[in-house]
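Q: Joint fold for the lines below.
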Amino acid sequence: MRYWLFKSEPDDYSISDLQLAGEQGTCWFGIRNYQARNFLRDELQVGDLVLFYHSSCKQPAIVGTAVVTKTAYPDPSATDPQSPYFDAKSTEAQPRWFSVDIQWQSTFYQPVTLSFMKQHPPLAQMYLIQKGSRLSLQPVTAEEWNIINKLGVNG
DNA sequence: GCCAACGTTGGC
DNA sequence: GCCAACGTTGGC
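A: Joint structure:
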């Protein structure tokens, strides 16, 4: 079992939206970066745990957790001409992009903000806070997950 | 809105 | 295969 961090712009899809999706969970579509795609397609397993991060917003922060409920399958938005994520080079026969399903697990009592993480030495190695880091799906260590989950749950 | 950092594209 | 131009991400 492994740990990951997913970014989402809350204006597009927030932790509340994920919670509202309920037990069905939601299809995580629209990943259009090859490195993130490879993690998604090759490494994410059912039961893997996810830190849910709000990006491009007033207070960037990890706001809750989720769990992977379905491994990779072709991203439906890639072959949907109506979707902003449509990619003509991705076909049903040879999909280029993939999705997984995730399900809401918790919303933090206290969001763990980016600025806090930058100032917290035990989290100094996090990929998220490295200079120039932009990956929208990235691995997290068990230690990082434990620290952040504790902070978020307990405030 | 600015801009640094990074990824992708395409001509050569 | 190089690299300039362009597009995107995302904090500030």
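Q: Anything notable?
A: Chain A has a mean pLDDT of 95. Residues 33-35, 131-134 of chain A lie near DNA strand B (CB under 10 Å from a C1').
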